[in-house]
Amino acid sequence: MNQEMMSHSQRNSNTCIERQPHEALTDLGYRAIIDLLPCYISIQDRSLRILFANQTLKNDFGDGTGELCHVVYKQSHDRCENCPVQKTFRDRRVHLSEETVRLANGELSQVIVYSAPITDITGQVTAVMEMSTNITKVKEFQKELAILGQSFAMLSHDIKNILEGLQGGAYVVDEGLKDGDLALLKRGWEIVKKNITEISMVVHNILYSAKKRKPRAEKVSPDELAREVVYLLEEKARTMNVRLSCQCNPSLPRVMMDPGSIKRMLCNLIGNALEACKADSEKDIHSVVVRVDYYDRDHIAFEVEDNGIGMDECTRENLFKDFFSTKGCNGTGLGLMVVEKIVEEHGGRIEVLTTRGKGSTFRLIFKI
Questions:
Q1: For 229, what's the count of Cα atoms within 13 Å in the CB-facing half-sphere?
Q2: For the chain, which residues make up each domain, given as ranges?
Q3: If you average pLDDT over every residue of the chain, what do you get?
């Protein structure tokens, strides 16, 4: 009786092994449970072809059964460089990686990928099960917390300098009042105004980078927006001995934009351009030019051009990475982060032209 039962058990075991892994999975009655799991599960063969996909995977990527994993997950014909499934086939171990995938709707998502071997009775790997968990929201929360924490840590030095500037300006104002010296009073007030503008820009950048918001679009004149910002920063440019000018096309059509965001974007870029000029000791005359005109028949472009210190290729490539600053230890990188965020919110794109020692041009292109 025992021998008969053992023989029966062995036959059942062999039957399951002989079947494809996804068929055995279905036979065991786990299909409904696996389809409900909030993660992507697939079984793949050595060619990385998907033999089985759960419903969650199909919902986000389409029915990829029979297709190559990297085509389904990344819409790419190239295999992933550090593919965990291939590693599992090689060493029969569980592997872990973090990947960027593209959903069927075109959105990019971050996932953590686990791969585990499926073996036969001889211990040979016949297939690999891959489980991927979408961590996009977690990554977004991590970034927001990092931005908030690092913002305050990195800005403390700048804020301290600005407060010292305000105190210095207030002292000069007091001395002017005490002596009845109008010229001294005026000079002190200019110092106070300059530092108020600086701290206002810093605080607005912190708030903008740390807070999720949707653009409040309305029909605005790109030409007028640019002129307002240039007027606001003319005095700052003058005190830095930089000529700030505006070359705008007044015949541009009104465009749906968030005026506050666009002005914030231009303030940051012009501010950076002025600093680039200040850092350049090779030229006697420095200038920053703001332009707004047609880019082509369907797009307009804002341009901020300076003849300051310029950037090398390494700086250019890292410009829009979190907290990267062209000012080294004297900057936080928040301004460019905010610029990139605003452009993305408006569905635009950024072009940067720069030459070390000659200057830089930031071009921001938006659909009309």
A1: 30
A2: 2-134, 135-212, 215-368
A3: 82
CA angle 66, 46, 73 (to 5 degrees): 50
The CATH number corresponding to 2-134 among 3.30.450.20, 3.20.20.60, 3.20.20.140, 3.40.50.920 equals 3.30.450.20
Instruction: Using the predicted structure, report yes or no on whether residue 61 has a pLDDT greater than 60.
Output: yes
Backbone φ and ψ for 20, nearest 5 degrees, come out as: -65, 145
Q: What distance in Å separates the CA atoms of residue 163 and residue 160, rounded to the nearest whole number?
A: 5
DSSP output for 226-293:
HHHHHHHHHHHHHHTTEEEEEEE-TTPPPEEE-HHHHHHHHHHHHHHHHHHHHT--S-S-EEEEEEEE
Residue carrying structure tokens 């030459």? 355
pLDDT-derived band at 308, boundaries 50, 70, 90: very high
What 3-state DSSP class applies to 331? coil
64 HSE (CA, 13 A, CB side) = 29
Question: Is residue 71's pLDDT more than 90?
Answer: yes
Q: Which CATH class is domain 215-368?
A: alpha beta
Structure confidence at residue 34 as a pLDDT band (50, 70, 90): confident
In angstroms, the CA 132 to CA 130 distance is: 7
Average pLDDT over residues 267-274: 90
**166: which residues sit within 8 A by CB, 6+ positions away?**
192, 195, 196, 199
Q: What was the pLDDT predicted at 201? A: 67
Integer Cα distance of 23 and 299 in angstroms: 54
What was the pLDDT predicted at 191?
A: 80
